[in-house]
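re the bet — no i am not wrong, look at it urself. input seq straight from the record:
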Amino acid sequence: MSDIPIGRLLALPFFDARDYLALNPDLDPGRVDPADHAFRHGLTEGRPIFRRQSLAGAWGRASLDVTAHAPAVPQAVEADPDACPRVSVFVSTASDPVEVALAADLTESLALAGVTAVLKDQSESPEADHGLPIVVAPHSFFHAGKGLLWAGTDAIERSLTFNTAPMHRRSFTLALPWILRSRGVMDVSPEAVQIFRSSGLHAFLMRIAAPLRNRWLEASDLSHPLIQSLPQAARRLDFDARAWDERPIDVAFFDVLTTRRGSILRRQAPALAARPCFLYTAQGGRDLLDERVERRSHHRLSGHVSAHAKVTLHLSEDEFPYFDWYRCMARTVASGSIVVSDIRPAHPDPEIADLVFHDDERHLGEMIRWLLDDEDGRRFASTARETAARTIVRPDTDHSESLQRYLRAAVRSTSA
């Protein structure tokens, strides 16, 4: 393995060699190269790699860059414009169901952009010819089952990665060694893409196609307790996602309960209590119902709930201003629901950024009232729904061409 991954780690704006030694006082500064140790040992051992404050600062600067201008696609390698590689999208069958759904949506989005793409899993041989592999959620793919066989090969050095781990979570430190060794990284977070590019990685901001859906559930889901708790009008497989005014739920929330989210929901309880709402919170990151059923079905159930709610809340899990664009677009916007958030998410495409209505956590109730009850607010909500229907169905021509250039460059780029 070359020193390229270590150089990329050193170039990350939130990694500092002195911080790494200070965070790991058992290491002898006179005998340890901090970046080398962090890459070869620290990331996999679960050691602290960087200070949260450093990451927050880098994230804030990246957010300003995103809103100032659309990031350019790196084009360090010229390639035959007719030679877009075929792609194999890999995801572990043991991954979170949202990641499995993302891999399927990514495969479809690549095809809509004119790229030949197939969906595969870790049971495939890492030595076979897969064209250009894209490994979705490397933090889980290489750490369980037959993914361990892939980890013992140089397959990652022939692959792109698709990062799904927020940078402030432990899962990101598990993904980082594989990202640093790969030919490049894709992400739906504009800030993450900016940060990856600053380290010398070939990074691409991917837009996932998310056509408006008139059905989310499987027939077996109708007997699920959460579906049975919905209003009668929402207990059906098929519906008209464009019939927004007829939706029986005003406000929905469907996510893991954290201290911050609980505080926001309690603060807004008086405003929410006056409306038909559906608020489901998984406790402590694990569901109270049978998790074997829940983890497979929650992506469908949450989409179905949003499809019957006029407004869906997207609340940040803690003080770190991470916004989950995949869940927003593929679950909420694809359901025709209006997105209301306590943070202002950055995106280089203003039409996409404007799909999210944001306000301080203290004023979310007023934002919801404005969107649902005020004539001007309802007009803005209608415009957002029309924009969503126009912009999320498929990647636009510019995005598709940029994507193909990126994939061609990745085939010839230098990996680890």
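see?? The first strand starts at residue 87 and ends at 90. told u. also The chain has a mean pLDDT of 90. so pay up
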